Amino acid sequence: MMFQSPLACATCQANMAAGGGDAAGYSIFFLLIVILAVLGGVIFFMARMMRREQASLDPALQDDYVRPSSTTHS
């Protein structure tokens, strides 16, 4: 027993049943690859910027880190 999908018109529903399901699956897979490629590029670029900054940072320009004291003042 098949039910009518209220999310698509009759033409779109008939085309999906006639082989359009593969195209939808391929398009989702393609978009997933594009998103992962862009995300990988952003992560690579950020990591590269961090490494290059650390390599060319002048030690005289670094702030001295002062660890906060663990004693509490009452």
Describe the protein's architecture and organization.
The chain has about 70 residues and is mainly α. Helix content is about 60%, strand content about 0%. The longest helix is centred in the middle third of the chain and has 46 residues.
Q: How would you summarize the topology of this molecule?
A:
Layout: H1 10-55
Number of strands: 0
> What is the helix content?
55-70%
User: Which overall shape is indicated by the principal axes computed on the Cα atoms?
Assistant: elongated
**How big is the Rg?**
28 Å
What's the main sheet like? none
Could you state the order of secondary-structure elements as H and E?
H
Strand content of the residues, in percent? Answer: under 5%
Gap from first CA to last CA = 75 Å
Quick structural gist:
The protein has one helix at residues 10-55.
Structure keywords:
62% helix; mainly alpha; 74 residues; 0% strand; 1 helix
